[in-house]
Amino acid sequence: MIAADKRKAVFLLHEEGMPAREIAQRLKLSRNTVRTIVAQAGAMPPSVRAAKQQVDVELLQRLYQECDGWIVRMHEKLVEEAHLKLTYPTLTRMLRELGISHPREERCARVPDEPGAEFQHDTTTYTLELLGRRTRVVGSLLYLRYSKRRYLKFYRTFPRFRMKCFLHEALVFWGYAARRCIIDNTNLARLRGTGAAAVIVPEMAAFSAHYGFEFVCHELRHPDRKAGEERSFWTTETNFLPGRSFQSLEDLNRQALEWSTVRMDYRPQTKAKIVPAKAFEHEIGFLTALPAHLPAPYLLHERDTDQYGYIAFNGNYYWVPGAQRDQVKVLEYGDRLKLYRARECVAEYPLALDGIKNAQYRPEGQPPPRHHAHNRRDRTQAEEKHLRNAGAAVGAYLDFALPKKGIQRHQLVRQLLGLSRRMTPELFVRSIERAHTYRITAAATIERIAGLFLHQGLGELPRPEVDEAFRERAAYQEGALTDPPDWSLYQDHE
Q: What is the pLDDT of residues 125-140, one digit of tens each?
């Protein structure tokens, strides 16, 4: 629409005798528009509005509830099903006037982008394929607002301890920290209250003080207060995750570190084409430098040493050097374990890789322990594979008889393997087939079935293998020259 001042200028130039073509060239209008404005004497034409449509209020309320407040879907149903010629802006205006929908809350106050002022932290969940399985992981991302630097890492779970480990790792990697950390109203750092009235957990407040920053919660329903963080997750979903494959959680984090701290550091960001690495060089003068050798956060656990010298931790077993079998203190860091006895660190281990359980670890350079850890789960995958190789009938029976998991599964596998070694393969397969037919799962009953076949002449026990050259052995010939045993002690005296 042509503004009123511009219409008035067109009409005044026309009255001064300027041709319509020159007016159009000067004011960047078409000649037809100039002629129309001159015909209207430079006045604004009256707006002609179509007759106001009447829509049933109950219908709007019902559709609003059915569509869960999604007005776009309401508009589709009104046009396609109710056959109403209603535009989308008209529908939104009607919903506001009737009080059915509410206008969106105003965005949060705009905060100036100052160097060294703040960084932002948040998490989100993804479902990715790791080790051939769809796995839920938690992505944690730290965003330095002024220089646009990022640090991304993924976890299986993200409790408060993992949050502290992540912040320590990211800030130590940068070497500097801003004055504030903007977070949402998460219970990981917030004790009570929301927004400006939020009270931070004393543990997290003390943690942040070591690094020279403080946690600040944004107001409810104001995620745009950390818009850079939200945009970073969008970039992760559209730039990092597509087209990449991950073999394990460690491989995922290795690629995430390279993408967030190398590739994105030297890629121009925003319309201003800011390069984070160069902007960070300028921002360093406004950030808080972290002290050297800043201690990492840890959790304290107490474990008893078993009779074989191991402690159990998170499904794995770690050797405790020395002959003592008393209680030790375990310090769990983000990437390693430290074992202390009487205030002395006796061993240090890297944390087991993701997905590894029931493994045994010992310090490098020391001889392996003589025994396995107490209560260590003894898997039977190899024994089960050996049984299945005996034939399809045995494999079908194992599918029927073996529990999905538990001690009973491993016990039955070992019992069946023992039976297979005490009889011929043909007799073992026939016994298994009969047990499957009658749905028998007890190894003792299967052994009695094999004995029944033997009595009926339907099988035979394997003959022992005897080396016929045993008489030529030196040990046999030496024993042949000894005195015969004295059996008189075992004779009955009357």
A: 999 998 778 999 999 9
Q: How far apart are the first and last CA of the chain?
A: 137
pLDDT band at 74 (very low <50, low <70, confident <90, very high): confident
Residue by residue, DSSP assigns 255-306 as HHHHIIIIIGGGS-BTTTTB-HHHHHHHHGGGSEEPPTTPPPP-EEEEEE--
Element (H, E) at 49: none
CA distance 85 to 51: 12
CA distances from 273 to 61, 66, 277 (A): 47, 45, 12
Q: At which residue do the structure tokens 């300028």 appear?
A: 282
pLDDT digit string, tens, across residues 165-200: 999 999 999 999 999 999 999 999 999 999 999 999
Taking the C-alpha atoms of residue 165 and residue 457, their distance in angstroms, rounded to an integer, is: 70
Provide the mean pLDDT of the chain. 87
The type of residue at 368 is P
Q: Are 340 and 331 in contact (CB under 8 A)?
A: yes
Q: Which amino acid is at 302?
A: E
| pTM: predicted TM-score of the whole model, two decimal places | 0.63
The CA distances from residue 85 to 57, 89, 99, 439, in Å, are 16, 12, 22, 69
- Contact by Cβ (8 Å): 208, 183: no
Q: What angle do CA 207, 211, 213 make, to 5 degrees?
A: 90
pLDDT in tens, 370-387: 777 766 666 778 888 889
Percent helix, percent strand, percent coil in the chain, to nearest 5: 40, 15, 40
The order of strands in the sheet holding 299-304 is 299-304, 327-332, 336-341, 344-350
Angle at 147 between CA 165 and CA 211, to 5 degrees: 35
* CATH number for the domain whose boundaries are 118-289: 3.30.420.10
Number of other residues whose CB lies within 10 A of the CB of residue 280: 19
What letter does residue 98 receive in the DSSP assignment?
H
For 202, the 3-state DSSP assignment is helix
pLDDT one-digit tens code per residue, 255-275: 999 999 999 999 998 888 999
Closest Cα partner for 55 from 103, 91, 92, 101?
Answer: 91
Considering only CA atoms, give the Rg of the chain: 40
